[in-house]
Design brief:
The complex is a heterotrimer of chains A (315), B (240) and C (296).
Chain A (H helix, E strand, L loop, with lengths): L1 H32 L7 H16 L14 H23 L4 H21 L1 H4 L5 E2 L11 H28 L1 H11 L1 H6 L4 H27 L1 E2 L6 H15 L4 H23 L3 H4 L2 H19 L17
Antiparallel strand pairs in A: 1-2
Helix pairs in contact in A: 1-6, 1-9, 1-10, 1-11, 2-3, 2-4, 2-9, 2-10, 3-9, 6-7, 10-11, 10-13, 11-13
Chain B lengths: L4 E9 L4 E10 L4 E5 L6 H8 L4 E9 L2 E2 L8 H4 L1 E4 L11 H7 L9 H11 L16 H13 L5 E5 L7 H16 L3 E5 L3 H7 L2 E6 L2 E7 H6 L1 H7 L7
Parallel strand pairs in B: 3-8, 3-9, 6-7, 7-8
Antiparallel strand pairs in B: 1-2, 1-4, 4-5, 9-10
Chain C lengths: L1 H31 L7 H18 L8 H20 L7 H23 L14 E3 L3 E3 L1 H23 L1 H11 L1 H6 L4 H26 L6 H16 L4 H17 L16 H15 L11
Antiparallel strand pairs in C: 1-2
């Protein structure tokens, strides 16, 4: 029995790890390829989650829905809605300096959260949407269903990975890299920098929406506080930094690695004496915050091209 | 007598290819030394290297016997070196009075009111502008504030990077007269200049830099009379 | 009209004062260290908790125990700068921004661990408001907040224009390289930036905690409007940031007044979005703010 328990713990771990991997790939497109500092990841995640939930749930008086569409359509809806949201955000922010872009993207994520909480006719507010379907809902339930979902998630990870790799190796990707290295030169060479950055942001946002959709279908329930918004955004940033090299494999590795630290520390903090156990999630957040500082100081290589002057001169 | 400033085999740049290589330069006390040369010769880089604003590959800079190669930039003023960069050389959002005041903060041993008196004596035009933000002044007046700020610390060595850049001919004369007046007060001056002919005419020593290396050095008169120098940098014609 | 003043204007000025005090620090840090300090709200939270702890042990009114909160906030800010921000100073500022996100999380987690995630109050019970001229009702807290902030504004202005440190700070904000060339001690200026920023943040945090209650997200929730205030006032213009804070506070509170008919103009649940909305408009159309700050 212990072994099956452990096995299904791993299944759960890999499911969430996969969802975070999608988020990391998405952020890598925005930041690693496009140089755009998106601090509002949670917003696109949430929008995608609600879009997929609304598209796939049965009719309810409490919220918008009743379309009962199959899950793949739900996920596409998630991508579309999040993509549109990303387009709107990027239109406003893409010309801004990183600090400002961070502020604006956080603000927009906050506004999206306010809309989700307050426009109850769409989302049922803080009470949330329940009964969100799983793939093959009619045929499989319980633990085997988790296995099927695991496969679903990692198929999406694969798709996201392939999309991102194709983009990276294409002329489009090369132009983006040129922009990252020297924006003014690229602009002078006639590249429409804003349009390219916009596309980058939208594609990343769409993928983040898909991740949100996956999350909604996994938990079968969705509410504004389901994932602490800050945690989603922050963890993904730490994951991408830790994964290091700014490429897609690094993104996935960082996602799984940090998620492992996050999950496994939960095992330890659950064994703490009761009065510390309530604070366990905060202890873990503190740990992640410290890990970020460590990674920034020691392991940030490759994340952005650093123009540090060499000590010696070329001969 | 040891030189006030002694630069030995200095190689420096901004990372990548060095801009100046193996440059030697000596500046005697209470003299005006001028560095001239074509654009891109590394003249400003040389001054900036004294101020530790570049990456120094090799070589050394000595000031009154102390090795100051690469010391933190802010330590220069307390040591007695004041620099006036070519552009962005005043605090635009601070008033003229505040700009001058700031020049004394690193040298608490200097008598502030005496320094201000001397600076305003050199630049009487500034008296009327003390309460104006420095950014609102004309180019020539800003230059006066910049040099004034540097003088407030009563430096032993004054570094000037193209003090006449962008100034009208009227100010040009003024600046060169001013430099001589400053030397009279016992300050040593090392300056980079584009107006080679006029600069050399007031210079005790001149150094020509080409492609980041020493080309020729000599007194101001010697260089003005030198055919090579005349042809290449002074626009030909007869010696002044 | 009286209702407007009592229930909208005065609270607006109070909220504006809180924003103003926080925004000053953000503006200074922006101007001198050249990055957006995302942990500034949490410095406010630390200041509030520090004062709260003192209140538990010393039977004095919270405002008199401000020095404890200020002390803790300053210590925290200096520590965080030394261990986390300083090592990244020579790199592109985006790293420091990311680090400040981390610091924000660290502060918030520490608050939740050390003081618990529950809401806490400074003073139990309700205090009677001050009544002026038989018509105006102002809570003592609001009066204190507004007056103290006004006094701080005057003191700040004098500090920045008359004192050596103040002028050095303005010089470094204006041109850090020239400041070094002129011999100014940049590290000292940075130290004072944190000291002043943290002190004012602590005061703002205590006012906010007194006005509502103290909880770990106290400062973080106020961060966006404070950024908006900073941009409104012009980056690197501390006095502008104070004005910006007041304006944003007014905009937020007054936007829910029933200007047209019976309903409030903007649903109160979207109140916090007002400041943000203003910020986005500014960033698009006038990033230098009202007082022509640096564009960065």
């Amino acid at each position: 029995m212990e072994l099956t328990g452990l096995f299904f713990f791993l299944v759960g771990f890999l499911i969430m790890g996969g969802i975070y991997a999608v988020l990391c790939i998405a952020l890598n497109i925005q930041w690693g390829m496009g140089g755009l500092f998106n601090a509002g990841i949670a917003g696109f995640f949430a929008v995608g989650a609600y879009a997929s939930a609304i598209a796939t749930t049965a009719f309810s008086e409490k919220h918008l829905g009743g379309f009962g569409l199959p899950i793949p359509i739900g996920l596409l809806a998630a991508a579309a809605v999040a993509g549109v949201a990303g387009w709107a955000v990027a239109k406003i922010c893409v010309r801004l300096r990183s600090d400002y872009l961070a502020m604006a993207s956080i603000g927009i994520a906050e506004i999206l959260r306010l809309v989700i909480v307050n426009e109850e006719w769409i989302t049922n507010g803080s009470l949330g949407i329940s009964g969100i379907p799983r793939p093959f809902d009619g045929w499989v339930q319980g633990r085997p269903a988790d296995l099927i979902f695991l496969a679903t998630v990692w198929i999406v990870v694969l798709i996201a990975y392939l999309i991102s790799e194709r983009l990276h190796d294409s002329p489009w990707g090369r132009t983006l890299r040129a922009i990252r290295d020297n924006e003014d030169a690229a602009r002078a060479a006639g590249k429409d920098v804003e349009w390219l950055k916009l596309q980058t942001f939208v594609i990343g946002a769409a993928l983040m929406g898909v991740a949100g959709g996956l999350s909604a279908h996994y938990f079968k329930f969705l509410s504004p506080s389901a994932t602490e918004p800050l945690l989603v955004t922050f963890l993904v940033w730490v994951m991408l930094m830790a994964g290091g090299s700014g490429n897609n494999r690094g993104a996935i590795a960082g996602g799984l690695g940090i998620w492992a630290i996050w999950s496994f520390t939960e095992i330890f903090t659950n064994r703490l004496p009761p009065e510390w156990a309530t604070r366990s999630s905060y202890i873990r957040m503190l740990l992640i915050g410290l890990i970020l500082q460590f990674v920034l100081q020691r392991y940030r290589s490759g994340l952005i091209p650093e123009k540090s002057p060499p000590v010696r001169f070329k001969d | 007598m040891t030189a006030v400033l002694s630069i030995r085999k200095l190689t420096a740049g901004y990372g990548g290819v060095p801009i100046i290589e193996d440059v030697d330069l000596e500046v005697e006390a209470e003299t005006v030394s001028v560095i001239i040369g074509p654009n891109g010769a590394g003249k400003s880089t040389l001054l900036k290297s004294i101020c530790s604003l570049t990456v120094i590959g090799s070589g050394s800079v000595f000031f009154r016997g102390d090795n100051i190669t690469g010391i933190p930039t802010a330590r220069l003023v307390p040591k007695g070196i004041a620099a006036v960069p070519q552009s962005r050389n005043v605090f635009a959002t601070l008033t003229v009075a505040e700009n001058l005041d700031v020049g004394t903060y690193a040298t608490p041993f200097v008598d502030r009111s005496r320094a201000e008196e001397q600076v305003l004596a050199l630049f009487p035009d500034l008296k009327a502008k003390l309460a104006q933000p420095a950014g609102e002044l004309s180019g020539g007046q800003r230059q006066m504030v910049a040099i004034g700020r540097a003088l407030m610390s009563e430096p032993k060595l004054l570094l000037l990077d193209e003090p006449t850049a962008g100034l009208s001919p009227a100010y040009l004369e003024k600046i060169f007269d001013l430099i001589l007046a400053i030397r009279q007060t016992g300050v040593t001056i090392l300056m980079v200049e584009q107006n080679a002919r006029q600069a050399l005419s007031i210079a005790d020593q001149g150094h020509v830099l080409v492609n980041g290396r020493n080309f020729i050095s000599g007194t101001g008169h010697e260089l003005l009379a030198n055919d090579n120098v005349r042809r290449s940098f002074l626009g030909g014609g007869q010696a002044a | 009209m009286i209702d407007f003043i009592n229930f909208y204007l005065i609270p607006a000025l109070t909220l504006g004062s809180i924003y103003a005090l926080g925004a000053v620090g953000i503006s200074m840090i922006f101007g001198i260290l050249r990055f957006a300090h995302f942990a500034h709200g949490d410095v406010m939270t630390i200041g509030a908790y520090g004062t709260l702890t003192a209140v538990w042990f010393i039977p004095l009114p919270p405002l008199l125990l401000l020095p404890f909160g200020i002390g803790l906030a300053i210590a925290s800010a200096l520590a965080v700068d030394y261990f986390f921000y300083k090592p990244l100073r020579k790199l592109p500022t985006i790293y420091t921004v990311i680090s400040s996100f981390g610091v924000a999380l660290i502060f918030r987690s520490l608050a939740q661990i050390l003081w618990s995630a529950e809401n806490q109050v400074f003073v139990r019970g309700v205090t009677a408001p001050i009544i002026l001229f038989d018509t105006f009702r102002i809570s003592a807290l609001h009066a204190q907040a507004i007056v103290i902030t006004a006094l701080i504004a005057v003191a700040l202005h004098l500090f920045l224009t008359r004192s050596r440190t103040g002028r050095s700070m303005r010089a470094v904000a204006d041109d850090p390289e020239l400041a070094s060339v002129a011999g100014l001690d940049t590290e000292n200026v940075i130290r004072w930036t944190w000291i002043i920023g943290a002190s004012l943040a602590a005061i703002a945090g205590v006012f906010a905690g007194l006005d509502t209650d103290v909880h770990p997200n106290l400062g973080w929730n106020l961060l966006l409007p404070m950024f908006a205030a900073t941009i409104l006032g012009g980056i690197g213009k501390p006095m502008g940031a104070m004005a910006g804070g007041i304006i944003i506070g007014l905009a937020e509170e007054i936007s829910t007044y029933n200007w047209i008919g019976e309903e409030s103009l903007i649903s109160p649940s979207y109140k916090t979005a007002v400041g943000f909305f203003i910020m986005v408009v500014l960033l698009i159309f006038r990033p230098q703010g009202l007082f022509k700050g640096r564009l960065m």
